[in-house]
Design a protein that fits this description.
six-stranded antiparallel beta sheet
């Protein structure tokens, strides 16, 4: 008994000594742990360690397959830790494995040269085990050598393929060089023709200038001759007048001369005066005698004397009467002579005037004859010019016909030449393909004839070389989609199948029923995975297979593979080979789409839609008809993918056009960098575009909390990878929905710029608690479609062109918007409810559009007896594009043509108005600023059909069509009376005149236009917008500018404009908001417009013009008023309705879509 404690102490000392020796041995390994873990591959050492029974299968699985050991260094470190627990035996076996696999590391650890005695495995397994192990290693080396040989053969085949492609490219280069030479030649000819044309134009211009100069000189000479002729006529008239005056003077001078000659002489006058005196003296004497006799005569004598006196007196009285009578007669004669002289003078004047008028008549007659001769000469020149013009036009039309004929012949010859060249290149390419396939098959036969080890298991051969059973021609056609294989190859050559690796089932995900990921996306991912896993597979071979078929095809591979099972110890040959092939762990090549998490609420509530496909139900309802006409399921799926391409890009962004702006980094702005993966689950947001985006709660212990984000921080900017793109998104003016969408879709490291704003956060919470606001969102939108509360799963029914006030873009954390209807006169919020979010509204708009298109195509097909195949063949190219590029395929091209025709159909105004009822009214906004939907879709279709360019048709067509269910609008108020525009424009002039004539001069007036010269007009065009312009003559323009309209508005009157609605944008840019009135024209009331049309037109033409004008109203950035067809029955009622509409629109608020300016 006393010796037992001593022996126990010795045993303890011995164990401590062994432990110290083990620690010393492992201390040497730990000193070189960094080098060992860096260069050691655990997958190489574990087979030997398991052969020596140092580690078991569980340890091997932990080292090689543990998810906590992602890198090789971690796995090597874990292996060293496990061997450290095995003690000295683990150390010895580890050194032997280093001695065999890593002699340099063995020398580094021990300082000795490797001897490779394998003592441990000889002790454990014997010499047979060592031989077996070495044989396995030899087999592995042979496999690696064969893999290298196969790789070398593949590289040689690839080099030959590249040489073949080089030859094809050389042939293509020769063809392109020929085309380039031909192009340069045609360019030189065109330049020569352009020079000749410029020279001819210069000569023509010089001749025209010379002709104009001569015409001006001729006109000046004619004017001068007319002036001279007028002066001559005036001189003749004056000469005639002077001649008549001279004649009159001459006649008067002759009469005076006669009077002077006929007067008595002076002697006669004196003699008559003496006789007169003598007679007077006798009379006095006789009177004195008579008086003296009276006194001395008797009474009888006196009686006789009295009688005589009485007789004398009577005689005197009689004589006096005769004298008076003579005097009166003389007076009458004198007056008659005066009248005669007066009438003679008047007669002479009249004769003078008559002669003057006669000569004037002769002069004017001569002038009229001269003018008539000139007019006849001008008419002859005009007729000659017309005749020359007709001859020139006839000659020009004949030249055009001949030119078109020659051009058609040249085009046919060029097409024939191109076809022959293409056929030649194809034949040469076919020859090159046949030669390359011949070399490849010969190389394959040579590679298959190489010797293999005798003890190589058959499972390894099947695993490396795959199933070598030949396939049928149909399978080969389905498995290969490259342009390298010609259709004739299957007749002369056996199919070639390159070696393929075992497919990883983790990289394949089955699609959910409601997932927005399309079949094309999954097939693209599978195609990428196949490119990464196998070297000889064509790039497009896996893209045309759906996910279900790929999954079903992988099940036999998994069942056939014998390497998936776990073998027991000791590991056999299959286990060793499996471990060698699984050195690099497989990664999942397809990740779950982050966007599918919140999309289920956006899907249409259509069971058939959820069961069948991902597109809207209107297209799938007609899939059978499409397939019957030649559009198979793949084409239909491509059409649905193109339609879905337009939607779900990102949520509604009022911050783009609102007053919000990105605040630059200031003193109070902070930033932090954290991982964007799962960030949306670490914090919740509050606010919106009006109040800003605030952090409401932060998950405790999350990365967001560790990064310094807390409640009350206002987010300003997010920088990082969003949906796979490097973006910088301002969050201070985003809606709540957009901010959440952005944070949900960011990945990798992102940088958040924020600032501490507790005051704004507390004010936001207080307003929400008091019920002042629902969230931080506040903006106004205009609806571009009808929304029904019963059909569209919302609580508010709205019509197209209604304006609503949005209060919350994520109401109750659902994809619904809380909004209220806006009063058109006071801007006050009326009834409140929910409407679909922007993404769901896009789908609703898409469904309405597709239903309209499908019904229109069906009606068009029934009416014209044309099928979809004939409609599609009108735009189908004569020669299908080459499928060398996997992005472009005949199937995709056919779907693209069909999609272009759908867009063409939507753009037709007559179809739209004929088939659209009140519940299906939509407002389609084009992508282009001025381009229409028809023109853009037609251009895109022609681009795909004629030029065959390698472009993505979805991107080309998505640029021309914008599915915009809601448009952001802004309110404006106008105190002055607004100008008025009428559409159709052909009725504007008549309506303006009738409004002014019907007593509206106090309220309405027309705008006076400016008359300016050409230089001033060109100057005005550069400085200010011109609302209306018209060229009056060669150097004068009549135009209306905004200042003219503002001058009318300053008088507090409505300015009635007779211009089209194309000037609305220019007016709004100048802060002038017009009232646009649409007078609805239909088949029922078209006869009422006969009195309003300025010129007679056919009813069909007038109706077509009105429909086109109504279609242009959709692109206006403002609302318009409509006068319905049944609102009036006469012109007077129409004028009354127009006045009421103008007064009503004047009181309304003006809503402007500034994105459309």
């Amino acid at each position: 008994m006393p010796g037992i404690p001593g022996e126990g102490l010795e045993m303890e000392d011995y164990m401590e000594t062994l432990k110290d020796e083990e620690d010393a041995l492992w201390e040497n390994v730990e000193c070189n742990r960094h080098m060992l873990s860096r260069y050691i591959n655990p997958a190489k050492l574990t087979p030997y360690l398991r052969q020596c029974k140092v580690i078991d299968e569980q340890d091997e699985d932990e080292v090689l397959s543990a998810p906590t050991l992602p890198s090789k260094i971690n796995r090597a470190g874990r292996l060293l830790d496990i061997l450290h627990t095995k003690g000295q035996r683990g150390y010895v076996v580890f050194l032997e494995s280093l001695e065999f696999y890593y002699p340099e590391l063995y020398k580094l650890v021990t300082g000795k040269e490797p001897t490779r005695r394998f003592s441990t495995i000889v002790v454990e397994e014997g010499h047979e085990g060592l031989t077996h192990f070495l044989m396995n290693e030899v087999i592995k080396l042979q496999q690696q050598m064969k893999a290298k040989d196969l790789q070398r053969c593949e590289l040689l085949a690839k080099a030959r393929q590249l040489e073949d492609e080089k030859k094809q490219l050389l042939l293509t280069r020769v063809e392109l060089q020929t085309f380039q030479d031909r192009y340069h030649k045609m360019k030189e000819e065109r330049d020569g023709y352009n020079d000749e044309l410029a020279k001819v134009k210069d000569d023509n211009y010089n001749l025209a200038m010379r002709y104009a100069q001569l015409s001006e000189e001729k006109n000046m000479a004619v004017m001068r001759s007319r002036d001279l002729q007028l002066e001559i006529d005036q001189l003749k008239h004056r000469l005639n007048k002077m001649e008549e005056e001279c004649k009159l003077e001459r006649n008067q001078s002759l009469k005076l001369k006669n009077d002077i000659e006929s007067r008595p002489k002076k002697e006669q006058v004196l003699e008559l005066e003496r006789e007169n005196e003598m007679l007077k003296t006798k009379i006095q004497e006789l009177q004195s005698v008579i008086q003296a006799g009276k006194r001395s005569l008797p009474d009888s004598d006196k009686a006789i004397l009295d009688i005589l006196e009485h007789d004398r007196k009577e005689a005197l009285e009689d004589r006096q009467e005769l004298v008076n009578k003579i005097y009166n007669l003389q007076e009458e004669v004198r007056q008659a002579e005066e009248l005669r002289d007066k009438y003679l003078e008047e007669k002479e004047d009249l004769e003078l005037k008559c002669s003057t008028l006669g000569k004037d008549c002769e002069m004017y007659k001569h002038r009229m004859n001269t003018v008539m001769l000139q007019l006849e000469e001008v008419e002859r020149e005009r007729d000659q010019a017309f005749h020359s013009r007709d001859e020139a036009q006839t000659q020009y039309s004949q030249c055009l016909l001949e030119k078109d004929k020659y051009r058609k012949q040249i085009r046919e010859l060029e097409e024939r030449n191109d076809e022959m060249r293409i056929e030649m290149v194809r034949r040469e390419a076919c020859i090159v393909n046949l030669e390359s396939k011949l070399r490849r098959l010969s190389r394959e036969n040579n590679s298959l004839d190489q010797s293999l080890p005798r003890n190589l298991p058959a499972a390894i051969i099947n695993q490396n070389f795959g199933d070598t059973s030949p396939r049928t021609n149909g399978q080969e056609a389905d498995d290969s989609s490259t342009s390298e294989d010609s259709p004739e190859d299957s007749k002369y050559f056996l199919p070639y199948h390159p070696p393929r690796r075992r497919m990883n089932l983790k990289g394949i995900q089955l699609q959910r029923t409601k997932s927005p990921i399309s079949l094309k996306q999954v097939s693209d991912v599978q195609g990428k995975g196949s490119e990464d896993d196998c070297t000889g597979c064509s790039p497009g071979s896996s893209r045309s297979l759906p996910a279900t078929s790929s999954f079903c095809d992988m099940q036999p591979h998994r069942s056939r593979s014998s390497l998936m099972s776990t073998t027991a110890e000791p590991p056999g040959t299959d286990s060793i080979v499996r471990r060698c092939k699984e050195d690099m762990p497989h990664r999942s090549i397809v990740e779950e789409d982050n966007d599918s998490g919140g999309f289920d609420a956006l899907d249409l509530e259509d069971d058939s839609h959820e069961r069948c496909s991902f597109g809207p139900p209107s297209i799938h309802s007609s899939s059978s008809s499409h397939q019957s006409e030649g559009l198979d399921a793949y084409d239909l799926e491509q059409v649905n993918l193109m339609f879905r391409k337009f939607s779900l890009e990102r949520p509604f962004r009022p911050s783009v056009t609102s007053g919000g702006h990105v605040r630059g980094p200031g003193a109070s702005v902070q930033h932090t960098t954290l991982s964007g993966d799962g960030l949306v689950g670490q914090l919740t947001l509050l606010g919106g575009n009006a109040r800003g985006s605030f952090i409401h709660t932060v998950k405790p212990g999350s990365m967001a909390e560790k990064a310094g984000l807390h409640e009350g921080h206002q987010l300003l900017l997010l920088e990082g990878c969003i949906r796979g793109e490097k973006q910088s998104v301002p969050l201070d003016a985003c809606t709540k929905e957009e901010a959440r969408w952005t944070i949900q879709r960011c990945s990798g490291p992102v940088t958040l710029h924020y600032k501490v704003n507790h005051e704004g956060y507390r004010k936001l919470l207080k307003d929400m608690e008091d019920g002042v606001i629902t969230s931080g969102d506040s903006f106004y939108i205009r609806l571009n479609l009808n929304i029904s509360s019963q059909l569209d799963a919302c609580s508010l029914s709205l019509r197209c062109d209604d304006v609503v006030h949005v209060h919350d873009t994520m109401y109750q954390d659902r994809h619904e918007w809380l909004c209220s209807r806006v009063d058109p006169f006071t801007d006050q919020d009326l009834d409140m409810g929910t409407i679909p979010s922007y993404s769901r509204a896009q789908q609703l708009l898409l469904v309405k559009l597709q239903r309209l298109v499908h019904r229109g195509i069906r009606e068009e097909t029934d009416g014209t007896h044309h099928t979809l195949r004939t409609l599609r063949n009108t735009l189908q190219p004569e020669e299908s594009p080459s499928t060398s590029d996997p992005r472009v395929s005949p199937r995709l091209s056919r779907a693209s043509f069909f999609f272009g025709q759908l867009l063409q159909f939507v753009s037709r105004s007559e179809n739209k108005y004929k088939r659209m009822n009140s519940n299906e009214r939509v407002r389609i906004i084009s992508g282009g600023p001025l381009g229409g939907l028809a023109r853009s879709s037609l251009d895109a279709t022609k681009l795909l059909a004629e030029k065959h360019e390698e472009l993505d048709p979805e991107n080309e067509l998505s640029k021309n069509l914008s599915l915009t269910p809601y448009s952001l609008v802004r309110a404006f108020h106008c105190e002055r009376r607004r100008p008025v525009l009428f559409t159709p424009t052909v009725l504007a002039k008549t309506l303006v005149q009738k409004l002014l004539n019907s007593g509206g001069a106090m309220e309405f007036t027309i705008c006076k236009s400016d008359i300016i010269t050409r230089d001033e007009f060109l100057r005005k065009q550069k400085t200010e917008p011109i609302i209306y312009s018209r060229e009056k003559n060669a150097n004068t323009f009549e135009c209306i500018v905004p200042a003219n309209i503002q001058a009318v508005a300053a008088k507090n009157k409505h300015c009635l404009l007779e211009v089209g609605i194309g000037c609305v944008r220019d007016l709004i840019r100048c802060r002038i908001y017009p009232i646009v009135l649409l007078i609805r024209v239909s088949e029922r009331n078209i006869k009422r417009f006969r009195k309003l049309l300025p010129r007679p037109e056919t009813e069909e033409e007038f109706l077509r013009v009105c429909r086109l004008k109504e279609k242009e109203l959709e692109a206006l950035p403002c609302l318009y008023a409509t006068v319905e067809a049944d609102a009036w029955s006469s012109v007077e009622e129409l004028l009354r309705v127009l006045k009421d509409k103008i007064a009503e629109e004047q009181r309304k608020t003006i809503w402007v879509d500034e994105d459309q300016l």
